Amino acid sequence: xxxxxxxxxxxxPGVGPKMAYIVENIAFGIVSGIGVDTHMHxxxxxxxxxxxxxxxxxREQLEGWLPxxxxxxxxxxxxxFGQEVQQQxxxxxxxxxxxSDPKEALVLIGTLKMDVKKEGKKxxxxxxxxxxxxxx
Length: 136
Prior knowledge:
Elements: H1 6-9, H2 17-28, H3 38-46, H4 55-65, H5 71-87, H6 89-98, H7 102-111, H8 116-122, H9 126-134
Helix pairs in contact: 3-5, 6-7, 7-9
């Protein structure tokens, strides 16, 4: 049996806060914390939403200012985005270029430490990126 609370799950060997909060949310519809992975930790520091050295400290800081009713949505919104930005750069760039505000999307990606021009060149997107960044 899976324990019903994150606190109980974290007593199991190998289960940390990230997994416990995610399982608690998905399996039982309970949100008592935010499961922060390394991608989210890096992104939230890059965005200057937190100033922390570990995912656990990032979680604590996020929970300190993010309205509790949003905690359950954080993973769904940011984990996949973080993975794409770090691991699927061409896909991320193509999505940014196809969105309603490509310039703003590329600036956001740049804030997350992707060199959009360098990566764009690798994928033959340099002209599209240059055009999007120069559009007013």
